[in-house]
Design goal:
With 258 residues, this protein is α/β, with parallel strands linked by helices. It folds into 2 domains: 194 residues, 2-enoyl-CoA Hydratase, Chain A, domain 1, CATH 3.90.226.10; 47 residues, Lyase 2-enoyl-coa Hydratase, Chain  A, domain 2, CATH 1.10.12.10. 49% of the residues lie in helices and 16% in strands. The chain contains 11 helices and 10 strands. The chain has a 6-stranded mixed β-sheet with strand order 1-2-3-5-7-10, sandwiched between helices. A hairpin with a 2-residue loop joins β1 and β2. It is globular.
Amino acid sequence: MYETIKYEVKDQIAYITVNRPKAMNALNSTVLEELYEAFVAAGDDEGVRVIILTGEGKAFVAGADIAEMSKMTPVEAREFGKKGHKLMNYIHNVETPVIAAINGFALGGGCELSMACDIRVAAESAKFGQPEVSLGLIPGFAGNLRLPRLVGKGMAKYMILTGEMIGADEAYRIGLVQKVVPLEELAGETERIAKQIIAQAPIAVKYAKDVINNGYDMDLKSASAYEVNTFGIPFASEDMVEGTTAFLEKRKPVWKNR
């Protein structure tokens, strides 16, 4: 079905794997298009509660495909950037939580791809960076925008303007990733987090992600109003009744809503 990625659904988890190991999983136009198609399929699948994104081989995604980019005109580069933003924005906004299992190099477009995800778990050997300036370019898939929001403006400028690559421990220290584990434990730890999310009320997970995403860039007064309005929505659901009842009855809830 796909030429450059793998897609599988198992136990309410959609697994999306960038599968160009000989090219270090570099993002060309085909990869961007197929990733978008796979994420839409997972987002539309009511049986999918969590999406896990990773890379095949030694890299998560080592960047955009330089061979393809080197031949682009400014107009073509703009269209390529739009394609990347379309994918990253979908990942950021899809109701289904997305976990990045960063197994190796996450550079340039790969770092940007990981930042679009909700949670990032890195192998101890993973490397991160935005080295575009060393190629006479700038980040084009929202790296200039998401990196400051995750690690602060000063650290983002340092990483982007120097092009310096950092290890997983430093990425954890600055807040770029949430967990660091040995490579052999990466898949298991990522699945454990996914199952922990699946154990929660689907409607609550959905609206919590929505409020975090939409409230983050609002002023505090507007964000407070948005949270209050959204807070009331789950009270109309069967899951709110089930969750509170199960708590009072000291039993595990059985969720019905997605």
